[in-house]
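Give me structure tokens for this 270-residue protein.
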Amino acid sequence: MTCRLASKFGINLRQTVLEFATTITCPKTQQTLVHTALTPNYVLKSLIALWCESNGIELPKKQGNCRTKKCGGSSLSDCDRTAIGALLDKLTSNDIEQQRAAVGKKDAATALIKLLCEGTPTGKKDVATAIFNLSIYQGNKARAVKAGIVAPLIQFLKDAGGGMVDEALAIMAILASHHEGRVAIGQAKPIHILVEVIRTGSPCNRENAAAVLWSLCTGDPLQLKLAKEHGAEAALQELSENGTDKAKRKAGSILELLQRMEGVDNLQSS
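Here you go.
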């Protein structure tokens, strides 16, 4: 999630943390904050703590024998600055992909999934965003699958009123592009849920559901047959006419697969 913040704001993580600690400015707008009564991000704090623990790194602690400098209404000791700098050296690199890979190599996926299942509604959304960004890196897709990400995502899809359908579909669309992700999602039997989202979901969710369905059905006649049995053809036809540009393309591709399958079945039965 630390990587997400750095990439989202488009600025260097080291510069962001050190400048925020000394000048109390918003890392996004660069405006000086009028006070320091900020709401702590406990999800981010816990993730940093888990990462440091798994990598044998001690979190920075203020020490009494260190000289403290005040700047912009905030205080930061020399020891704090040194400790924070050392920590950031461990967390950052010049390449966003390297950052994602470094975080994903440890137990970040397991810790994130635990928070995803047990966190507050707001915390779950933060964690889902972190998982989404980490999963963009190809090597992290398999790690997330092995850590058990698919089960809670399917549960979020089933619980349409839980407020996590958007996030679940976005993550699934990324994981479905990976072989292990595609297999794990297929084993969870989500076809009927995906078809229902394509019928009734928001434009973005319909697009992601179609992307997942396309990944599952491509090269897998069983999944394609299940899609047909659950009425996907009519839903996809409507999506190909009224969906987003990407959704239209995915819907058209799946419809072509269904037509080919129907042609093969007709040949075999004749």
